[in-house]
Amino acid sequence: MSGKPQLHFQALLIANEQRNAYGLRYNDYERYRKHCYNRTHRLRSSLKMTYGRGREFKKLPPINLETVKEGHLQLLLFEAERAWAHSQEMQAESLKLSSTAKSSSGSAAEAAAKQSSSLRKHATRRMRRSIHWATQLLSHCQALYAQSRLSAEDLTQVNTYTLILNGRFLHQRYEFEDALVQLSVARNLLDALADAAATSRAKALAVAFADEIGPEIRHCAHELRRDKAYDVDAVVADVAPKHRNALVQDCDAILAQLKDETGAVGQGKGKLKELLWEDEPVPVRNPELVDVLLKVQEAEERLSAAEKPGGDEHGKSEKGKVGKGARSKRGVASYDAILLALSEAEDVARKLAEGQKLSGTTAAAGTRDIHFVHAYIVYQLLSRRVQRDLLLTSTLLHQLHAAQKAHASSRKMHVDARLYPAIVKLLDSVLQSLEQMRTLPIVDESPDLAAAVDARLSFTKARRCYYLAWCYVPLKKYAETLSLTQHASIHLRECRSMLAPTIDTDPINEGEPAFYPLTLADLDKLEEKLTLDSTSFKNDWFAYNGGSLDPESSKTHKKPLFFDIALNYINLDMDRLQERAGKVPETKAAPVAAPAPQAAEKKTQASRAKVEEIERSATPEPSSQARGGLSSLLGGWWGRS
User: Fold this and answer.
1) Same domain for 248 and 141?
2) Which residues form a coiled coil (predicted)?
3) Which of 54, 341, 492, 493 would disulfide-bridge 295, Cβ 3.0–4.6 Å?
4) Phi/psi of residue 572, each to 5°?
């Protein structure tokens, strides 16, 4: 027997993957039934187990355990899945016709009722067929387990699958007592699989099937008038130990073997760390969600390694130290990996939440369902996005401060015109993430966290206004600059009013949440920068055009206010002003050469004409007398004006 190949066949894993991938996430039983038909056809072709061609029917020989392969077991499983999906499809159509018969009257109601009854009987036959295929699969797996060709975990999964089908069939036939026994034993086996799981994915698989049959166990217990029927764990603990060995052959021995097989498996890469929210665990009950969260966990470990100064050899200088620029580049790359993994996790969680909403299933009161997990993943995605944007912002500001220190001797330093718009764009992204985070239900339900997010929103708005004001400085638009600094001061006061009460009530956790640390010292620092830069902007504006809002005023020279009036009361020392201006006064100027005779004569005649004009008396204007009538209208025709 040692020479026979070992088989690895996990019925629950295959069924879960196929159901989620081919329509059952949205209760599309027809699509899943067609998929199972195509899959069985391909398996029969590959295993050469077809029923012949055309109308010729060829009966198949029984499966030989000596030559059995994993494909033979998959064939039986998909036959059972196909019959079960067909049964569920016809059951749903029967319920629709039954509701139609109740809402209508006459012959239409009778026809709908008759068709509904026919579909219900057909669904029962298909369900029996599904149980037949599952029982045949179980018998083959038991024989393989006896030959040590199948593990205890695989046999437990096949036993659980068969019990679930039997329990659901009995539940549909309103045989609640037998259904409760079957489903309780199946739930007990699923709990054993979850406890002995070597990976978080295997544990989530068992938990997912346990969640599926939980409502049916609760309904059966309620119909049987059991005490505390709402407590599924208590019902299972009471019923399962009494009937477990009767329904499952050598159940205790199989479970003991299961513990021995998984006991040697240590904590590997497949183990997901516990996720906490407000010191309570976040339930991850779906295998596909575990897969993407494991990617997130690996990306976070790489990020923590990249943030350590000696965590990587790349980016080191000759002295062995890692520069801030190299660390920031590695950090941004690590954040991109985390954001990619979290985006994938958010997509999976959103699809699971939509599927749960369409199926109409709801979690028990006080428990955290897939909608909570989806909100948690979105929060983590937004927080990591904020961290990435803040890291980029700090990197740009670090480069600016380094350049300012290098040019500390010069009064003015040339700043790249793209720097401040880039910072504003990053802060816009931070604002968008924080606003989306504020709308999450898990944030809205926590008053402290909601206040912290609001405070960071106001602080980010203040920073955005501050750096946006610097964008207008090279354009000499000082009015817009000062208006933005005033808005920044208003947002800063709002942030202080929100942040101060939380720090007073909990001074130990000042700066929380950790993805965006914020303290009163940060507010004071930004307020000081706003005050100094606002004064500097005012001085530059006054020096530019005297504080005028008209941008064209700086192009033309304007006299200071009261300049002409001041000259009437102040004697200006023009000689002194000329000396300070670098011009020689006329008294000390060199003698000018005598002009030519013709030019002197013309100048003398021009001066005489000017004197005559001055001495000539002005012609008196005629006195304007009031005239009216036709003479005033036609007076201009006879020379009167």
Assistant:
1) no
2) none
3) 341
4) -85, 135
Quote the CA–CA distance of 151 and 159 in Å, as a whole number: 13
- Whether residue 445 lies inside any domain: the answer is yes
- Give me the pLDDT at residue 319, please: 40
Do 254 and 139 share a structural domain? no
CA angle 254, 260, 263 (to 5 degrees): 135
Determine contact, residues 191/209, Cβ cutoff 8 Å.
no
Name the nearest CA neighbour of 142 among 79, 68, 84.
Answer: 68
Tokens of 383: 């927080």
pLDDT band at 630 (very low <50, low <70, confident <90, very high): very low
Residue 393 is assigned to a structural domain of this protein: yes
- If you search the block for the tokens 């239900």, which residue do you land on? 441
Examine the domain organization and report whether 92 and 181 are in the same domain: no
Euclidean distance between CA atoms 583 and 392, whole angstroms:
57
Q: Which two tokens stand for residue 56?
A: 């010729």
Residue 581 lies in a domain: no
Structure tokens at 270: 């497949």
- Domains: count for the chain: 3
In the prediction, which pLDDT does 551 show?
65
- If asked whether residues 238 and 292 sit together in one domain, one would say no
Residue 409 maps to a domain: no
Q: Are 513 and 452 in contact (CB under 8 A)?
A: yes
How many Cβ atoms are within 10 Å of 131's Cβ, its own excluded? 18
Q: Are residues 93 and 10 in the same domain?
A: yes
Which amino acid type is present at position 506?
A: D
Q: Answer for the pair 99, 109: CB distance below 8 angstroms, yes or no.
A: no
The enclosing H or E element of 280 equals: strand 280-281
Using DSSP, state whether 276 is helix, strand or coil: strand
pLDDT for 541: 87
Assess whether 102 and 179 both reside in one domain.
no
Peptide bond into 513 cis (omega under 30): yes
Task: Compute the residue count for the chain.
Answer: 641
Distances (CA, A) of 625 to 55, 188, 326, 622: 132, 124, 95, 9
pTM: 0.76
How does pLDDT run across 375-411, given as a tens digit for each residue?
999 999 999 999 999 999 998 988 888 777 776 655 5
Q: Are 138 and 253 within one domain?
A: no
Find the CATH number of the domain harbouring 81.
1.10.3450.40
633 pLDDT band, cuts 50/70/90, is very low
Residues 257 and 294 in one domain: no
> Which of 435, 437, 531, 545 minimizes the C-alpha distance to 492?
531
